[in-house]
Amino acid sequence: MVLVLVVGCQSGASPDRPDESGQSSPLNQAAGSIPNLPLKRLDGSAFASGSLNRDSATVLFLLSPECPLCLDYAYTFRTLAEEYQARGIRFVGLFPGTYFSELQIKKYCSRFRLEFPMVLDPDYALTRALGANTTPEALLLNEQGQLVYQGGIDNWAYEVGQKRLEPTEHYLRDALQAFENGQKPPLARTKPVGCLIE
Length: 198
What we know:
Blueprint: E1 3-7, E2 38-41, E3 46-48, E4 58-63, H1 68-72, H2 74-85, E5 90-96, H3 102-111, E6 118-121, H4 125-130, E7 134-135, E8 138-141, E9 147-151, E10 157-159, E11 162-163, H5 171-180, E12 195-196
Parallel strand pairs: 1-4, 4-5, 5-6
Antiparallel strand pairs: 2-3, 2-6, 4-8, 7-12, 8-9, 10-11
């Protein structure tokens, strides 16, 4: 199963091209690299982040209920989840911080019919462990919690407030397809465009 984590956005922009900064994510590439943090799902049930180190591949979306691009990409989040969950990939939304209330997050999920699990990260502990800093941002983890892909969903938005009519590169979908075929993704990391997590 693949877990997609989306985090909310603030006011940052990233170029629409692979990350050439040379900086690596704090997430260790070794198996079992995600710390076991006691978090809570939006429905109130417990969520141990260490579960991401086993059982299934996961796509994590870092989300915010008022980030313009999280709103714009909501349909894409839903269609990807519907398609790939049926093939054994797990999807999870991650909401860092306490800026937005649980009611605001529930309204966002209900409005766009996002039915995969939503996890709250009030202290940014998992967000920092993942090296995520933008919403929306996507991470693809294999069954051992190893990072396969991190960055933007596609190249539809190439700057904050600037979008193409249609995306010409589909970073996350390409990574998912490569993963299913036992291959490395065409790009392992891209710079997400969106809002900085505060």
